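Lecture notes, unit on protein representations.

Consider one protein chain, 286 amino acids long.
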Amino acid sequence: MTLQLPILNAAIGALNNAFPPQRTKVPSPGESGGGDGQIMGFFTDTSICIGCKACEVACKQWNQLPADGFNFTGHSYDNTTHLGSTTWRHVAFKEQIGEESSRWLMASDVCKHCEAAPCEQSCPTGALIYNEFGDVYVQTDICNGCGYCVAACPFGVLGRNEQDGHAHKCTLCYDRQADGMEPACAKACPTESIQFGPVDELRQRAQRRVGELHQQGRNDAYLYGAEPLGDYGRLNAFFLLEDHPNEYNLPEQPRQPLHQQKRRYAASLLTGAGLAAICALIFKSH
């Protein structure tokens, strides 16, 4: 059975009317809220990260997050291994050992605070919102622990805490921002690998930094997430990398789970209707 495009478009229109999109509006510059209304975020320059884990420690201390254990994991000097409900900053160590040379790639990973966050779109209770600084924020008091946001995030940022059953992730130190302070991780970073500020300014600063590295002969340097990644929007916490994204445990083309969702729903409804009609004809013929 071939689905005709006009019928499919009509079904999508009916779905739009029946289920209008309800998105939390992201503040734009000039609106009331976060100081001057600018969207705030992170620029992480991995080219100067020394792997000291000061950001991890500062994040845990400020947010009163429990330790993840002190056992060797077998993955270099990494005892946390990934982001989760109690690890909101994670410094990854990537050892590249070659025949002629070796190097360490180090990067401090964090929630990307996406412009169009799948976690926020998939949350059925409205626990995930954009706050006045444009950051994706979890309201744990209204989180029902369904885990939809955990599955929707293509970066593996969110985790559901086993003790309280709620989802947790980086808040971009919302409480510190509200008092005019920079996030704890950026404050603690000794090399300024983690930079905090208005995202538009950070993107310009990051482009200049890439230019500087290229002049030094480090032509592999590029920005990840400063611009859209395929059909995935920009990241408000983006990175300067010097190797393939997979080397930093980042997807080359992150998936947007809700992309073309209405079209898929419409196709399913029409397929179901077609199968029902065929079944009706078979029973009628007998």
